[in-house]
Write a structure and sequence with these properties.
There is one protein chain. By secondary structure, the chain is α+β, with helices and mostly antiparallel strands. The protein folds into 3 domains: about 375 residues, no CATH class; about 190 residues, no CATH class; about 210 residues, no CATH class. About 55% of the residues lie in helices and about 15% in strands. The strands form 2 sheets. It has a 9-stranded mixed sheet. The radius of gyration is 36 Å and the shape is elongated. The two termini are about 20 Å apart.
């Protein structure tokens, strides 16, 4: 054998071979384009999607910072700002609460003064927009759009006058009954975030008039932004030690943030690896399927004297040409879709996004996609290159791609069904590659859909909001006006579109000292930052005269409807006995200040000062202790845990003096504007009634939600389309490379219709198995990914409809595509196809 070491000869043969294999090269180029497009589009849109939900999370928080120091002293502020680990620290102080606007009661609109660092570095970045300027004059005020809407102002104007009734907070108490002040403010600016908070920001000149201090309990806070937001418990302690904290100061930080970041990284990392594997298999599939036909041709070249090294160069050279065509096209297509089509489509849907940056172009994504696609092509053609070099000329000519011992030459085919099954698995390695590529693409789609579903604003609000709209009596704890009457509640129930109405009643209670039920709770309370004062002195006075200490150790009796009971009982794990609860034999205690597990099973005694018999004492058994987040009431009593009873029991004790604090309303169709309008109409003219609406909050988030939802949906659609295109590409390559086999079968008497049926069954087999595997592995994997990346306390759910649509599309493609490809590619006669293969 003479070694021909001529690059020009190899290049010439490669060109001839390349031109002769136009159809297969088109399929290979298409696979490279798909892979490159997958990386650029999915990563570009995916990163922008993640940035969008991260930005929305900050906006829902209302301020951008890492940790918080409560009640900071001046020396502590200076120490924190001088720390190497601290990027910047802004000071915020609550200094007043507005209660009324033009005779309309407000839902405790809080006034804050923040320094320049806090405003510019931590507040502004958390807003969707801000118009105007931070207050400088004493009568200037910045308000959130939520606060303005609550005041009835939907189109605010800079400079408009706002006559408000407020009271200032001094350094000793937060919501004390201080003198109300009437003052006309001027709106200097307004902003929108997604926190739902009704905040106002005031000037330093106004702040100085209030008497509030940064060291006032629950008033002042130092918002700290770290250079490295991924901090550990040790980092927290390193910051805390030099500060010499004094009671009740607390350095509030999330000591699980590093662990949560690792979870997110693992979840997203696993998802990204699967996307890369999916892209890798796109190319590997096409190249691997064509092994048998290529090897026979290379065997013929080997008999003519071409060496193994030269054959490998021939394989790699053709792959290089395919890469030079496919990679630039994939990059261009990815750039056009992610940076052009997606933003343009979103702006057409919402013209307000014209000036918004929707998809960020990262050059490293395109560089990485090109490198990855090149490496994938190189790895994909390594298999035929190795086989080419290792096979002898005779073995190469006889090569059919089956592993020795697995050929079934003597197997009798008893029907088309068995033939299809044999064809699917006659080369197990090939079957694994085909099923693997399809399975990975479908699994990635299922996982991404779960993540997108978990970050859907409506899904988040549905799981974090108690109802569609809350109607609240703002006179609670003050005048206790009967604004939410039984007649109003019944009228709400008759409103078209209202599904459920859950009234919440409340009453002030007088509670004597009870060691057995709350003794340990009080000890823990006084050891916490919320301590009311001196434990020994207060307990001694409380035991002697409970009424004198009722303002400190009082509690409220909260009454709920049977519908609300179901929700509470579900959150508590279904441990409550409904009949006992309805009769008033048991109750639930809600804690905020400290744990009170010892109270479970204990009887507590209380009196109702506002009832017809204020001296009579009642008792109830505490069946469970729940977190304060489960308490449907808005107003609490003193430091003793509030108790939750049935409305039937509360009405029995209070009679016609039972006071309805609020009503929670659910709609038959969530976020219904017509239903919400009708609900609000029931309380038209009531200036002391306020509303907290899930629809309003969603509308506040609408701009960001459209962007996030479109990007997430676009990501899912791209993955779905790529899954289908990968299958089409796979079947086209398979049909093209089995041309001789089909021609041989036809020469033996098999009709083209029977071949099409075999191909349909093969396609259904691959599609059905891939869908089954993606469900078996994808569902638990999507749950793990969801749990690792979710930033909200919501339950896992899967968009079943989207997945079913994709699976149905795949089944349809499995039925339609294989025979269509066969019809399009096998047009020549049997003799011409046999001769063409033999000539090659």
């Amino acid at each position: 054998m003479i070694k021909v070491n001529s690059r020009s000869v190899i290049t010439s043969v490669a060109k001839t071979t390349y031109k002769a294999n136009k159809k297969r090269n088109v399929l290979t180029v298409f696979a490279v384009v798909l892979t490159t497009f997958l990386i650029t589009a999915v990563f570009g849109i995916g990163i922008s999607y993640w940035n969008g939900i991260s930005e929305r999370s900050v906006r829902m928080n209302g301020m951008d910072y890492d940790i918080e120091l409560t009640e900071p002293r001046e020396d502590q502020v200076e120490k924190v700002r001088d720390m190497d680990a601290v990027k910047y620290a802004g000071l915020a102080v609550k200094c007043g609460i507005a209660e009324e606007y033009k005779g309309k009661a407000l839902e405790k609109m809080r006034f804050y003064w923040v320094d320049q660092i806090c405003w510019e570095k931590q507040c502004i970045p958390a807003y969707e927009f801000f118009k105007g300027n931070y207050p400088e004059e004493e009568n200037e005020l910045v308000l959130s759009t939520e606060a303005l809407k609550n005041m009835g102002i939907r189109e605010p104007e800079i400079g408009m006058e706002l006559p408000l009734t407020y009271y200032a907070l001094n350094s000793d108490e937060e919501d004390g009954q201080q003198e109300n002040i009437n003052k006309t403010f001027r709106l200097s600016g307004y902003y929108r975030d997604y926190s739902g908070n009704q905040y106002g920001y005031v000037s330093e000149a106004f702040f100085d008039t209030t008497g509030a201090e940064p060291t006032g309990f629950t008033q002042g806070a130092l918002k700290i932004t770290l250079k490295n937001p991924l901090y550990s418990k040790k980092d927290i302690m390193d910051i805390q030690k030099p500060l010499n904290l004094q009671k009740p100061q607390v350095l509030m930080a999330d000591d699980q943030i590093l662990a949560n970041f690792i979870k997110v990284t693992v979840g997203l990392g696993g998802l990204l690896i699967m996307i890369l594997i999916s892209g890798d298999l796109f190319v590997y599939n096409t190249l691997y399927i064509s092994v048998s036909k290529d090897i026979r041709y290379y065997g013929q070249l080997k008999t003519l004297g071409m060496t193994s090294v030269q054959l490998k160069r021939l394989v790699y050279l053709q792959a290089f040409w395919n890469s030079c065509i496919g990679i630039p096209l994939g990059l261009l297509l990815g750039a056009v879709v992610s940076a052009g089509v997606v933003p343009m489509a979103l702006r057409l849907m919402d013209p307000s996004l014209v000036n918004e940056k929707i998809v960020t172009v990262y050059p490293m994504i395109y560089i990485g996609a090109a490198v990855f696609a090149s490496a994938t092509v190189l790895a994909g053609c390594r298999k035929p290159a190795v086989i080419t070099g290792e096979c002898s000329p005779v073995e190469a000519v006889r090569y059919i791609g089956l592993t020795e011992g697995k050929r079934r030459e003597k197997e009798r085919v008893s029907g088309l069904k068995h033939m299809a099954r044999r064809n699917m698995f006659r080369d197990k390695k090939q079957a694994v590659v085909i099923l693997g590529s399809f399975f990975v693409a479908l699994t990635v789609f299922v996982c991404v859909n779960a993540v997108v579903r978990g970050n859907d604003a409506k899904n988040i609000l549905d799981q974090t909001s108690e109802c569609d709209i809350q109607v609240k009596n703002q006179t609670t704890l003050n005048e206790n006006l009967p604004l939410i009457t039984d007649e109003k509640v019944e009228e709400l129930r008759t409103v078209k579109g209202v599904k459920e109405v859950r009234p919440v009643t409340s009453a002030e209670t007088s509670v004597p000292y009870q060691e057995e039920a709350f003794g340990e709770y009080y000890k823990r309370l006084y050891e916490s930052r919320y301590s009311p004062g001196n434990y020994e002195d207060d307990m001694e006075g409380y035991k002697k005269d409970a009424e004198a200490f009722n303002n400190i150790f009082g509690m409220r009796m909260i009454g709920i409807s049977p519908e609300e009971f179901r929700k509470v009982n579900h959150e508590l794990g279904g441990i409550l006995d409904r009949d006992a609860f309805e009769k008033g034999e048991t109750a639930v205690a809600f804690v905020f200040w400290a744990s009170a597990e010892e109270a479970v099973g204990k009887k507590i005694r209380f009196a109702l000062p506002d009832s017809s018999n204020p001296q009579k004492e009642y008792q109830v058994t505490i069946a469970a202790v729940g977190d304060s987040s489960l308490n449907p009431a808005e107003f609490s009593g003193g430091y003793t845990p509030d108790i939750l009873v049935s409305n039937a029991f509360a009405e029995k004790l209070m009679g016609d003096k039972l006071y309805t604090e609020l009503v929670q309303v659910d709609y038959e169709e969530p976020y219904s504007k017509d239903t919400e309008k009708a609900v609000k109409k029931v309380f038209r003219g009531e200036t002391q009634i306020s509303f907290r609406s899930k629809l309003v909050r969603y509308q506040e988030m609408k701009l960001s939600e459209q962007q996030v939802k479109f990007l997430g949906g676009g990501l899912g659609i791209i993955l779905a389309v790529l899954s289908i295109l990968n299958y089409i590409n796979m079947m086209a390559a398979g049909v093209q490379n089995r041309a001789k086999e089909f021609a041989t079968l036809e020469s033996l008497g098999m009709t083209s219709g029977q071949i099409k049926k075999v191909l349909v069954r093969e396609g259904l087999g691959y599609g059905g198995l891939s869908i089954l595997l993606s469900l078996v592995a994808g569902l638990p994997l999507s749950y793990l990914v969801f749990q690792s990346v979710t930033v909200y306390d919501i339950e896992y759910s899967l968009p079943v409809l989207y997945n079913l649509i994709l699976f149905a599309a795949i089944i349809a493609v499995c039925v339609v595509v294989p025979p269509v490809i066969y019809q399009m590619t096998q047009k020549d006669s049997v003799i011409e196809r046999l001769r063409a293969d033999g000539e090659q």
